Amino acid sequence: MGRPKFIASVSFGKDSLATILLAKEHDEPLDEAVYCEVMFDEETSGEVPEHRDFVYRIAIPRLKRAGIPVHIVRGEKTFVGQFQHRISGEGRSAGKMWSWPLCGKCYVQRDLKVKPINEYLRQISEPITQYIGIGIDEPKRLESLRKKKGCVSLLEKYGYTREMAKEKCMEYGLFSPCYELSNRGGCWFCPNAKLEEQREIKKNYPEVWSQFVSLEDQTDDVAYTVFNPFRRSLHEIDAQLEFDKGGNNGTNTQ
Ligand code: SF4
């Protein structure tokens, strides 16, 4: 068995990028970064276009120039594929489609993000320490991280909050423009996505957006009929985006 490997899990959001910057500043061992790109379908990324552009055009080349190789993984499955996956077994939802992801128990996170990264890490024969970007102002997430073998938060080690992580990324010109649309990172098709992210998809990929909205028409054989039961339906969101195109771009109601 070779020497241990140190790998940063990176989404190219502020917390994971600040982790890498801290590793470089403090001479922490870092062999590579691993990035998982979730796909909406075979052709379309789950990243908002501004973030995807930032990842491939700015961030990855900058890390490579700094001597940090970035390994890109993608799951075999896509969001649309998983949406249409039929539930097996005998329960109440047996035979229905998985349909919309539930935040907190998200199959996208489990199957399209964590699984491909773990499969990649399993191929490495050396012992691994994984850097995960969790700030000191996220105590619950830190508590769960501490229970995971081989996972470390450098933001915790160096006393960084998420706001400090943002400042660190800005200092290096590595703050993703996706934060101009929303203060969250993640898939544009997430039930937690904000109106400005959805507006970008409708504008940049109108056909993909229509396909996405039409998933909500499949009401008979899905486990969850509504995109986001706590907010508006996708059709209502689409109606607002259409209305805003007419020059009525007023209040963001999400
Ligand atoms: S951003 Fe939303 S859909 Fe994507 S993995 Fe996270 S919870 Fe799931």
- Largest β-sheet summary: 5 strands, parallel
Task: Report mean pLDDT, rounded to a whole number.
Answer: 92
Percentage of residues in helical conformation: 40-55%
Q: What is the H level of CATH, i.e. the homologous superfamily?
A: HUPs
Shape: globular
Spans of at least 5 consecutive residues whose pLDDT stays below 50 are none
Q: Compounds present?
A: iron/sulfur cluster
User: How is the largest sheet built, in terms of strand order?
Assistant: 3-2-1-4-5
Number of H/I helices: 10
* Named CATH architecture: 3-Layer(aba) Sandwich
Give the SSE order as H and E letters: EHEHEHHEHEHHHHH
Number of strands: 5
Classify the fold: give the CATH topology: Rossmann fold
Label the structural class.
Answer: alpha/beta
Task: Give the termini separation.
Answer: 51 Å
What amount of the residues lies in strands? 5-15%
Number of domains: 1
Q: Give the class-level CATH name.
A: Alpha Beta
Description:
The protein is of the alpha/beta class. It has one domain (5-183): Rossmann fold. It contains ten helices and five strands. Strands 3-2-1-4-5 form a five-stranded parallel beta sheet, with helices on both faces. The longest helix has 17 residues, at 49-65. The radius of gyration is 19 Å and the shape is globular. The model has no long low-confidence stretch (mean pLDDT 92). Bound molecules: iron/sulfur cluster. Iron/sulfur cluster binds at residues 101, 103, 106, 108-109, 113, 186-187, 190, 192.
